[in-house]
Fold this protein.
Amino acid sequence: MRTITFDIDRFDGTRSWTQSYAFEYDPTLTVLGSLIRIKEQQDPSLNFTASCRCAICGSCAVRVNGNAVLACDTRLDTVLKQWGADTLHISPIGNFKVISDLVVDWGDKIERLRSAKPGLKAKKEFSADSGCQQSPADFAKIQKQWDCILCGSCASECNKLTDNDRDFLEPFVYTHANRYAQDSRSADGMVHVKEMVKQGLWKCLHCMECVTKCPKQIAPAADIAAMRAMAFAAGNTDGKGPRHAEAFRTDLENTGRLNEVRLVPRTEGLIDAATGRMGFTYRMLKHGKLGALEAAELYLTDNKPIEGIDGLRKIIRYERDGK
Amino acid sequence: MSEDNKDDTSSLSRRTFIGACAAVPLTGAVADLAMASTADGTQGAAASSGAPSTMSFDVLVVGSGGSGLRAAVYAMRAGNLSVAVVSKTMPTRSATCMAEGGINGVISYPGQKDSLDSHAFDTVKGSDYLGDQDCIDFFVEKASEAVRETDFWGTPYSRAKDGRIDQRFMAGHQFPRTNYSADKTGHALLHSNFDYALGAGVKFLIDYQLLDVGVEDGVCTGVVMRNLKTGEIVPVRARAVIMATGGYTRIFWTRTSTPFIATGDGTAAALRAGLPFKDPEMIQFHPTGVAHGGVLITEAARGEGGYLLNNKGERFMQRYAPGKMELAPRDITARAIETEIAEGRGFGEGMTAYVLIDLRHLGREKIIERLPQIRHVGLMFENIDLIDQPLPIRSTAHYSMGGIDVINFHTMETAMPGLFACGECGCESIHGANRLGGNSLAAAMVTGKEAGIAAAAYAAKAQMPDDKALQRLADQWRDHFRENTARTKGTPFTEIRDRMAQVLWDGMGIYRTEKGLAATVEALRDLHAEYRTASIGNAGQVYNSAYTHYIEVGNLLTLARCAALAALDRRESRGAHTRVDYPKRNDKDYLHHNLVSLKGDELVLNQRPVTIVRFKPEERNY
Ligand SMILES: Cc1cc2nc3c(=O)[nH]c(=O)nc-3n(C[C@H](O)[C@H](O)[C@H](O)COP(=O)(O)OP(=O)(O)OC[C@H]3O[C@@H](n4cnc5c(N)ncnc54)[C@H](O)[C@@H]3O)c2cc1C
Ligand code: FES
């Protein structure tokens, strides 16, 4: 008999521990099916949540070996093969307050979702009595963002949230904002964008964990990028985030390479960079990540343009100016 | 793999690296944004005062499916009222999000042939003439409005070329009038209503389980709930309560397409508070759900040309519907599958017996292109790839037509002042003995709105009730928790749940007989008694989901007993209710609603005539 072991992170409100449950291998099981089997055959005190068991209600996200999955939509076999082991570590999704075992608290997440200003404010020509008009192409533009099932997987491994969740929101919040920002029925999509600019839109680190983890193949990072582009287009270019993006583009257009030494002062301003980054720069120099002379030279003279820079400039200009 | 790197692979070390970088954000330390993050929804009027006094609201909505959210938004709109929505889960985990097909509502546009009259007639005929016709007339008009209004609120509907909402055909309708959002209409509708409610400032009490309704002098005074996060049992006063807790199809436990939350808690609480449970025997079955767990295999599988096979490899539909074969209507197909199994031509036995659906002849490409969702369900639940193998399936319970007796369909009032009911937990009755596809989302939108408006109007005039009855009830529930979780011996209650499901499937499933139903009534009574001495296996306070489920199973047992009693008494076949011993509809004796009430521990059955307006009952042929 092949035995599978789930090491499950337990929490009863005061005490935390990890408990091992062994059960017989069964190729028909999903991760959720395995949890149900453990609860009903071994330990009724184990807590987790599930409702639809077919990947649409978003209840059942848990971490398997540190990675968020929808338990009902993940076959046991798949994760056993993926990890090459018969013992798996099951824990609640990350960046959430844990209520008990695998159950997390959505109370404050829902309050944070309100900051996306959810709900459509439709254009004047539409009304509650007659509804709206929208072309199939415009519907297609927002369809993906509407697939979000609020399972929390995108937030689970978000590095920015783990570092500091007071100046950044869960990736799904940006996806929510963007679905109204991009909706052709919206009176003013910028309402949502402006709010998101205030709420950390420029702080995403591009680690792409949200994109990797979304069980519905939504790309919250792309929603963030789309709203940044809207902010830019609306002349919202002030602040470190926009300046940072602008600095990237300037570098690429000039030489095709990033000038990391110029990047920081351009983003933060010379004074801020000089005062705020001293320690960091010193550590870089000390560990040989940066040569002092090399840095000075780079700052003064910039990189040499890469081969094929003309082609790259064309692309950038096309993207920016549409020609 | 060593202990140390069990959680660590190359992808994770990348994460560790990025995590470390995050500690030195490139854009520097900026003052933290002040974000609205009130800890949770416990901002009841009295809760903020600090003292452990009773929470109170002007309008309390129990349930956050489509109907509850609509009710809350409309109650808020009345202005100046405190409104909260309670849910035993995070708010979007409802049955509403599972609906795929669409929402019915006639939309007028140049060249439109459909009409409200036609929608009304189809609904009446679909209900097998058990639907109340005045109510259905009201419903079809409001359904049309609701579709346009939800479009305005942001529901992302699929579109026709000219920009209007696209519509599709559903079985039982004469015209395409089902508005949809790809194959996720319920999801789109639920989330757009949720967003709208968030934007409108609706409060949410998350992870609170409704236990009972408080009554004093025949008036609703609020509810008793259990805060799942802490285990606390709390009385909540409310001028008006709107029940929106969904259906009770989980009486069949693993043989239903509905979510785990569909345990009829609100219906059972209303019953205990003295209200009748209307038409409890009317439960709709869908012919195809996966053998393990009942998840829906949509009509598309048969629509695209799938075969149904028995254990002899025969396409058995030729015995039941030689003309239409697998494309026969739902009820005929469901009965055919059960007959094959009953007569020994299925596979397996008991609750997991099944027949097969075979798509192999359609070919790999067509399956991948046209039926990806169904293939995925096969892989998840049975570990079977429909490209290579047929899939075990069986009928599955799908919708509860019965529910809390609503006595005024304009307001969704019940006979108890202050208590309103909407969505699948209420029975007005729109769906009668059989709901048409696409009509339940429409009903959730329509009834939710009307309940919200009427409850707000009622609350604006009503006194805030006192909490005496609620405190008493809360004490009883505290005792209930203590006594029941203390038991360490006894049958595990989940075993009783599984036996209940088996008893009901065999005795009150797709085929019903006098003998079978009488035995079911008996068996349920015994199970209910055994349930009271069953073991729960967890005495903890914090999020004790075993106890949560114990209460749900108790509710299911109560509701199942009502259903069996009514089914026994309905000696005819009508809509979803098929009596082998009475195969014909009998309008002379049974053109009435069944109303089951609880008197002490005894069930009492009464009748009320159906309202007929324009459409005289005739035979229901398609
Ligand atoms: C697989 C599937 C497909 C479907 N397809 C369609 C379709 O295509 N078209 C159509 O019209 N209909 C369809 N339906 C039916 C339709 O989805 C439902 O009838 C409808 O959404 C019910 O909405 P509701 O608001 O009444 O209840 P639900 O959406 O079930 O919501 C009930 C709410 O009550 C809460 N609740 C329950 N008990 C308690 C308690 N004790 N304490 C606190 N809260 C509680 C739950 O948490 C939940 O939030 C389908 C249903 C299923 C299952
Ligand atoms: S249980 Fe609903 S998404 Fe898994």
Remarks:
- Chain A has a mean pLDDT of 92.
- Chain A touches chain B through 105 residues (CB under 8 Å).
